[in-house]
Design goal:
Length: about 280
């Protein structure tokens, strides 16, 4: 049974709407807003800010300068804001993790704080991270993403919006994963994943994420335009020439996102292949 702990708070006017288990350890300097539930044996550090409507399950550790946005659910055994797994990291620097609203993190999710002074590992809103997912230091993800069980993101990865990453997939540091991309489970990815594309295995290109585009309201005309430009850019074998050909085209803003991803990849380069529908 959850019942209010005897922890002192600098926000005493909100205590009557908090549901904090008596075994939870909540630092007096943690900011806990209204309608927050904290389960048994969870540990909340001094710099943590938990916004209204959040549910923190048992045995969760929220460390350092971590902000949890409104209406988030943090699953049992998750650790958010711990030191990064970087041999050169100075644990004395101030950095943290910030989550937007309406995120669901299931059991044993781990998210590490930034390696940079005043830096943040950032998670947008409306994401669903399944059991055992890991976000390393300085990862930035957008909104509406789904990461299946045991997805592993190394440091400095940027993820767009509405992606689906299959269970057990691993991603090398510093790469980018584009909007509406889908990656097969157990894949090993060491280059940028193009927006709207399906990737499998070890950097293998499987075509466009047609099902995902349909489900997210992309019109037939827009899907055809994306398909045409994807074939030109990712199949041609000469990206520089292909980019020159599409530069003056009057393209939809969504298609321009694909062009920009190809024109300005990370230092790891971008996965290419045959665009199929």
């Amino acid at each position: 049974m959850l019942r209010p702990s005897k922890v002192h708070s600098q926000y005493p006017n909100t205590l009557n709407t908090q549901n904090i288990h008596s075994t939870a350890l909540v630092h007096p300097d943690a900011q806990i807003e209204k309608n927050v539930s904290i389960g048994p044996f969870s540990v909340i550090d001094a710099g943590v800010h938990i916004c209204e409507g959040c549910v923190i399950d048992g045995h969760v550790a929220l460390r350092g300068h971590t902000t949890i946005g409104e209406n988030c659910r943090i699953g049992w055994g998750s650790v958010i804001g711990a030191d990064p797994q970087d041999l050169h990291f100075d644990p004395n620097i101030i950095s943290g993790v910030t989550l937007g609203a309406d995120n669901t993190l299931r059991e044993y999710v781990t998210i590490h704080r930034s390696t940079s002074p005043d830096g943040m590992t950032r998670v947008g809103s409306g994401n669903f991270l399944m059991t055992g997912a890991h976000l390393a230091h300085d990862v930035v993800i957008g909104d509406g993403n789904i990461f299946a069980n045991n997805v592993l993101l190394a440091g400095h990865i940027h993820v767009g919006n509405k992606t689906f990453l299959g269970g057990g997939a691993g991603f090398h540091q510093f790469i980018r994963i584009g909007d509406y991309a889908i990656v097969q489970g157990n894949s090993s990815i060491t280059q940028d994943v193009p927006p709207y594309c399906l990737i499998y295995g070890a950097n293998n290109f499987g075509g466009l994420n047609i099902v995902g585009l349909k489900r997210n309201g992309f019109s037939p005309e827009l899907r055809l335009e994306i398909k045409t430009i994807a074939k030109k850019l990712l199949q041609s074998g000469n990206i520089k020439l292909a980019l020159a050909e599409v530069t003056d085209m009057n393209l939809h803003p969504a298609t321009q996102i694909l062009v920009a991803a190809v024109a300005h990849p990370s230092r790891k380069g971008i996965i290419t292949g045959t665009a199929k529908a």
